[in-house]
Amino acid sequence: MKKPALAIALAGSFALTACQSSSDPNVQARNAEFGCIAGTVGGAIVGGLIGSTIGGGTGQVIGTAVGLGGGSFLGNRLACR
């Protein structure tokens, strides 16, 4: 795996590990909002990494862009129920 891709994957996994639970409704609301944001960002990271493996040159750029958009959409839909 390339170093930039590994750095992005590690940053995404660290961002997603900060979730916690609490009985306070204010904390729960903030955690739900964080989970929604983390799902969107995590989906974009994973989608971008998958999209970057497709094609070469301009096709790779387009694949990365489509992966970013699709991954962020799916991550948002899964995390923001």
TrEMBL record:
Q: Which residues form the signal peptide?
A: 1-18
Chief subcellular location: membrane
Could you tell me the keywords of this UniProt record? Lipoprotein, Signal
Q: Which family does it belong to?
A: Belongs to the rickettsiale 17 kDa surface antigen family.
- Membrane topology value: Lipid-anchor
Gene Ontology CC annotations of this record: cell outer membrane
Provide the Glycine zipper 2TM domain boundaries.
38-77
The protein depicted here goes by the name 17 kDa surface antigen
Subcellular location per the Swiss-Prot or TrEMBL entry: Cell outer membrane
